[in-house]
Amino acid sequence: MCPVLSHLDGRFESADAEAEHRIAVLYQEFGGPLLRHIRKSTGNDLQWAEDVVQETIVRAWRNSARLQWEPSLIWAWLLTVARRIVIDGRRRRSVRPHEVEPPEVDMLAVPDGSERALSAIVVAEALRSLSEEHREVIEQTYLRDRTISEAAEILGIPPGTVKSRLYYGIRALREHLRDKGVAG
Amino acid sequence: MHEEVAAYALGVLDEEDIEAFERHLDGCESCRRELKEFAEVPGQLDELKHLPSASEDDPPRSMSR
């Protein structure tokens, strides 16, 4: 059952009250986990991470059709929304994540069971195990905060090819991590 | 369209393609399943951002022999 949507019908005197309640429930369900995830990609900048979570929740609230999805899919979707907000923010700030002070070690610990603590070494190894074409598109998109079309231009290949390589590259990365016992 | 799920999950799909992909997602069970699976990937890749820039493999120039 999706707690986000349960018992919302007909209980509110006004649309505003319902909206307020819906946002509160979204925060309650997803706010904490989102903050933990996003904090990593903001270089542990808590204020920025909180702003990202807030904007993500507001965008989610505007998109009530997607809140009909099952919670695990809502979660996956919220992460994509949050990532885009982080990437946009990073561009505006022109801050590269690796130029930020490394976070305290205890901040890297992942307290909830939904994600396992992974060492950067294992992920780096997984990336190295990929074919050059697969590794290249992951580096030129996500790791450099570039969109598909921007990476396509830099690599001199069609956007469709970038999408396709990224898809198979990510699948290969997942398989490698799974073989190492660190992913799903 | 299916292959866009990776770009979407990583947040690197171009703005103008997002809406069309989300519409596709509404009716595509396999993409929904893969989105849930790929949702972990950005967090895993973010681990790399915590790698010290000077690794054993790649010493800074000033420290090379």
TrEMBL record, chain A:
<dbReference type="Pfam" id="PF04545">
    <property type="entry name" value="Sigma70_r4"/>
</dbReference>
<comment type="similarity">
    <text>Belongs to the sigma-70 factor family. ECF subfamily.</text>
</comment>
<dbReference type="InterPro" id="IPR000838">
    <property type="entry name" value="RNA_pol_sigma70_ECF_CS"/>
</dbReference>
<keyword id="KW-0804">Transcription</keyword>
<keyword id="KW-0238">DNA-binding</keyword>
<dbReference type="Pfam" id="PF04542">
    <property type="entry name" value="Sigma70_r2"/>
</dbReference>
<dbReference type="InterPro" id="IPR007627">
    <property type="entry name" value="RNA_pol_sigma70_r2"/>
</dbReference>
<dbReference type="InterPro" id="IPR013324">
    <property type="entry name" value="RNA_pol_sigma_r3/r4-like"/>
</dbReference>
<dbReference type="InterPro" id="IPR014284">
    <property type="entry name" value="RNA_pol_sigma-70_dom"/>
</dbReference>
<keyword id="KW-0731">Sigma factor</keyword>
<dbReference type="InterPro" id="IPR013325">
    <property type="entry name" value="RNA_pol_sigma_r2"/>
</dbReference>
<dbReference type="InterPro" id="IPR036388">
    <property type="entry name" value="WH-like_DNA-bd_sf"/>
</dbReference>
<protein>
    <recommendedName>
        <fullName>RNA polymerase sigma factor</fullName>
    </recommendedName>
</protein>
<dbReference type="InterPro" id="IPR007630">
    <property type="entry name" value="RNA_pol_sigma70_r4"/>
</dbReference>
<keyword id="KW-0805">Transcription regulation</keyword>
<feature type="domain" description="RNA polymerase sigma-70 region 2">
    <location>
        <begin position="26"/>
        <end position="94"/>
    </location>
</feature>
<dbReference type="InterPro" id="IPR039425">
    <property type="entry name" value="RNA_pol_sigma-70-like"/>
</dbReference>
<feature type="domain" description="RNA polymerase sigma-70 region 4">
    <location>
        <begin position="126"/>
        <end position="175"/>
    </location>
</feature>
From TrEMBL, chain B:
<protein>
    <submittedName>
        <fullName>Anti-sigma factor family protein</fullName>
    </submittedName>
</protein>
<keyword id="KW-0805">Transcription regulation</keyword>
<dbReference type="InterPro" id="IPR041916">
    <property type="entry name" value="Anti_sigma_zinc_sf"/>
</dbReference>
<feature type="domain" description="Putative zinc-finger">
    <location>
        <begin position="3"/>
        <end position="32"/>
    </location>
</feature>
<dbReference type="Pfam" id="PF13490">
    <property type="entry name" value="zf-HC2"/>
</dbReference>
<keyword id="KW-0804">Transcription</keyword>
<feature type="region of interest" description="Disordered">
    <location>
        <begin position="44"/>
        <end position="65"/>
    </location>
</feature>
<dbReference type="InterPro" id="IPR027383">
    <property type="entry name" value="Znf_put"/>
</dbReference>
